[in-house]
Amino acid sequence: MKCVIAGAHLRVFGRAIHAMARISDEFWFDPIEKGLALRSVNSSRSAYACIFFSSMFFQHYCWTAVSQPCQKEKQLSLPCKLIIKSVLPVFRCANVLERNVEKCSIYTNITDHHLTFQLLCRHGVVKTYNLTFQECDPLQAVFAKHMCPNILKVHSRLLADIMIHFPTSQEEITLSVTPVKVCFKSYTEEDTDFSKTMLTEIQLNPDEFDYFQVGVDSEVTFCLKELRGLLAFSEVTSLPVSIHFDVSGRPIAFSVEDMVLEASFILATLSEVEKTTASQQPPSFSQPQESPRLCIAVSYFCNHCLFQFHSLFFGAVSCEEKDAMSHTFHSLATASDTEEDFGNLQSSQVF
C-alpha cells in the first residue's frame, strides 16, 4: 500500500490520529479499495471509532502491493494494528504540519512488517519513521444507526462550546431529549457528595439544531472523553455532527461525513437498571482500575450473548461458538475475516 497526503490535508489526518488516541492505546490501519480506514476500540469494548478517508482525500492512493517486479499486483495482508504512542510523534503538532510539511507519504513493507511515514518538509528536509505493525483481522462495528428513533444534527462548533462548560474531570454526561428541548447535564451517582461537586446543565431549543427528530423521549449517559476526541476532529473539518440514539442502555453514535471522509464514534450507554445497581453496589465488590461505567457497558453486551465474551469483539469465531449462535445479536464491535463495503458497516449483522 502507498498513499500520499498533501500538506493541506495533513492537519485533518493528524487530528484523526489524535482522536484515535482518545479511544485506545492501539488502532487498526485498514486500507481497502475505496480508501483508508482507521479503527479503534477501547479495552472494555464500550467505545468504538472509525474514521474513513476516501481515495479522493489523498494526492495518490494505491492499496495493492507488488512483491517482485515480475509478479502481478496482489492485495496486502493488511489490516494491521499499531501502537498509538508510536504514531502520535509523527503528527505531534497537527497545526504546524500544514505549514512546514509539503506532503506525507505512507507505505508498507510487508517483508519486514514496517509501516513507513515519510514527511517531505520545506527546504528539502525529509523525516522518515519506520513503525512495526502487527497483522490482525479487520475490526467492524455492528450498529444500525438508521434504526434509531432520535436523530440530532448540530454544528461542531456549537457542540464543542457546550462541552467546554463541563470540567475535564467529568467522566460521563447525560443527554436527555423531548420534542420541545434538549438537555446536556453532568452525570452523578446517588452517593455523590453534592456539596463538593460542580453540576452543569445546558438546555437547547430544537431550532438550534440543523436537524431535529425525536421519536421517543429518552435520557442516555455516556463517556465524555471519547466525544471530545471526535469534536476536536470535526472542528478542523468544519462539519456538523450527527447524533443517533435510542433509549438508555442502547449505544449512541456520533458521526461526521462529507464527500471524502466519514467518522463514526459509537459509545455504550448506561441503562436505568444498571445505574441503580452501580450506585447501590458496595465498594468492596468493585473491580480495581475499572469505573462503574465500564463494568456496566460490558455487562450490557454480555447479556445478549450465548458464547464467550472475547468472540463478540475480536478474532475469528471458533466452530463450537458458531454452532451456538442460533439467533442474530447486536454488539458494539466485532471482528470478521472479510472486509465489507464501508457504507454497509452501520447496518451489518453477525450470525
Written description of the protein model:
With 351 residues, this protein is an alpha+beta fold. It is 23% helix and 34% strand. It has helices at 7-21, 84-87, 94-100, 156-164, 224-237, 272-280, 292-302, 310-313, 319-324; strands spanning 2-6, 26-32, 35-41, 47-54, 60-62, 64-65, 74-75, 80-83, 101-109, 114-121, 126-132, 134-135, 139-141, 150-154, 172-178, 181-186, 201-204, 211-214, 218-223, 241-245, 252-257, 261-267, 333-335. The protein has a ten-stranded antiparallel sheet with strand order 12-8-2-3-4-22-21-20-14-18. Strands 5-1-9-10-11 form a five-stranded antiparallel sheet. Strands 17-16-15-19 form a four-stranded antiparallel sheet. Helix 4 crosses helix 5 (224-237). It starts with a strand and ends in a 16-residue tail after the last strand.
The outline comes out as elongated
Number of helices: 9
Strand proportion, as a percent range, falls in 25-35%
Over all CA atoms, what is the radius of gyration?
Answer: 21 Å
Query: What class do helices, strands and sheet pairing give?
Result: alpha+beta
Mean pLDDT across residues = 75
- Calculate the terminal CA-CA distance, rounded to whole Å: 31 Å
| Physical arrangement of strands within the biggest beta sheet | 12-8-2-3-4-22-21-20-14-18
pLDDT < 50 runs, ≥5 residues: 66-77, 278-351
Strand tally, please? 23
Fraction of helical residues: 10-25%
Q: Main sheet, how many strands, which sense, barrel? A: 10 strands, antiparallel
Which features characterize this protein?
351 residues; disordered C terminus; ten-stranded antiparallel sheet; single chain; alpha+beta
